[in-house]
Amino acid sequence: MDNEKEKSEQAGRTWRPQDADREVLKADIRRRVWSSNASPKAQFIPAKPLPTVQDEGQKTVAVYARVSTKSTEQVSSIENQTRYYTEKIEKTPNWDMYQIYSDEGISGVSIKKRPAFLQMIQDATDKKMDLILCASVSRFARNTSECLEQVQLLKTKNPSHPVGIYFETENIYTLDPRSEDQLQIHAMLADWESANKSRRMILSYDQRISTGQYPVLDLLGYRHTEDGQLIIVESEAETVRFIFLAYVIGYSLSEIAEILTERGRPTLKGNTHWNAAMVKNIMMNERRWGHLEARKSIVIDHKSKKVTKNNNTRDSAYDPEHHEGIVTFEIAKAAHMVAASGRVLKDGVHDLTVIHRGALKGFISVWPFWSGMNNETLLRICSDAYSEDEYTELLHEAGLLHGTEHGNVDSLTFHSYEAPPGVYFMNRNTPTLTLSGKAIKFSRSCRSRFSKHTHIEILYHPIFQMIVVRGCNADTPNAIALDKDNGEPVSMVVSRAFTAAVYEKMDWLPQYRFRFRGIGREREDHQFMFFFLDEPQILLPKKEREKLAESQEASDVQYIPYKTESDGSVSEDPAALVAYPEAWGGKNVGINYELRQRRNRLFETLTPQDLCIDGTAVLNPLIGQIPDRSQIEDEVEHLLQIL
């Protein structure tokens, strides 16, 4: 029944097309259009004609001119623009000249570094002009977004006083709404041309580098010739030479800057006020020592002028013998060594010295603040004290002492016995020296053994693996003060490079510290102490101490691997506060007694004369041949007199 009723209702319903209402609306609109009539009183007011640059009415006119370089051709161009527009404005009856704004030698990619342009925009927004004349869109801006943004600003900032720009080459007047599309196209073309110019410059640079035509500019101490060579200007080179040599012997960057400022020494641009950054830049420029590096930095975005270091992103070149240096390459390396030390080398670069005679022959006088030192360098310095035969015999003797070689033991007493390492018997009163990867630390007891001295000198023998600390005078080249300026005792000396070289020689694991027992002696007024690096007490990291505190089963004595594996891997950290070399945990408890006696005789037979022998300066492998410190000091004094 229900289905039949529903069918009956649907049959009697009237259906309308879906667009019926739309058709009715259209019909109503047509009827109103044809039936409406304007009121007899209504007035039709037409719009003003579209503005043009030739409109009548008095106008205050400004001119903007820009050239991208300071070459004579470009200077001529900007002068021609200035003259042309001056005459043009004078010949136009309703135009009055306000000002000519010009940026010389400035890129059009960004407006940020164009002072005249920015001043013009500010004056325009302050209603000081009605019209700006510019030769072309590309002279105004080569960045599409900046160009359109500034045009829109001048048009809308003051709606009652819009300022138009007339680009003469393209015949575009920005207050004419019909020019908008045309302006966008030309702004895009100027932007594209800027990017294309950047690409052309990169290609040109690539070609010049590949053919050895490196770009050179004048810099303090040099002038460049037409054929791309740098020649020294001696009057300026004196300033450069003083900077390097003074820094090498310990003057700070600020002290050098103060001296140059006081003496009125000019920079390349004639500035006589110096600061530390300016001095550092002089020393970091490789051209000062005769080298030339082309394309050290590159512009990665031509719009923002973002500059970054060239990490092989583009072609580059390095010519180590491009021209005559003001200073030698070795002097430059010495200065850079001081800079790399973070001013730890506050007294400048010290001479590398090794003792050439006496009982301490072959020991190197250590300046802990060296940078770049390594085991190979120390071995080379040590070998300088010996003849070839002596050095061969020395290596054999060292092998016997360290158990890496075997020989006949002549003594009939205790020759088969082994003595325990001295570190087993250390206590709080034992003088000790501790080495870490960053520093050398002396115990209080160790310092007290040098009661007759205010300074000490550290001597190191990389083959015998021994350190000798001897008292010395304050004027000893590598003297280390026992007390700070405030009177507090010096317990630790920063020594990253030297201790790293010792770790390398001994194959020690870098996460451990190593403590050594000192054996002290006196000879008349001389006090000294020996430390044997093959008898270490191993100090574990802090986290291992915490682990030990939690463990109730930890043994009082632990013997652990403490050297790097042959594959360079590192052993697991042991759970002990203090440990000893793994080899000592077996039947062998130490060094052969007779070999120990041989080593002990070294410091037992030391004479006061041996302790007075200073090291002889040797060639520094890290730097090369440079004058000794006294010669450099004399040269600095001479330069101070003529600056």
List keywords for this structure.
643 residues; alpha+beta; 5-stranded mixed sheet; 36% helix
Could you characterize the architecture of this molecule?
- By secondary structure, the chain is α+β, with helices and mostly antiparallel strands.
- The strands form 6 sheets. Strands 12, 13, 15, 16, 17, 18, 19, 20, 21, 22, 23, 24, 25 and 27 form a 14-stranded mixed beta sheet that branches. Strands 2-1-3-4-5 form a 5-stranded mixed beta sheet, with helices on both faces. The protein has a two-stranded antiparallel sheet with strand order 6-7.
- It is elongated.
Short description:
The protein has 643 residues and is α+β, with helices and mostly antiparallel strands. It has 19 helices and 27 strands.
Distance between the termini: 122 Å
| Number of helices, counting only DSSP H or I runs of 4 residues or more | 19
Strand content: 15-25%
- The whole-number mean of residue pLDDT values reads 80
The general outline is elongated
**Stretches where pLDDT falls below 50 for ≥5 residues?**
406-417, 565-576
Q: What is the C-alpha radius of gyration, as a whole number of Å?
A: 42 Å
User: Roughly what percent helix?
Assistant: 25-40%
Instruction: Describe the sheet with the most strands.
Output: 14 strands, mixed
Structural class of the helices, strands and pairings? alpha+beta
Number of strands: 27
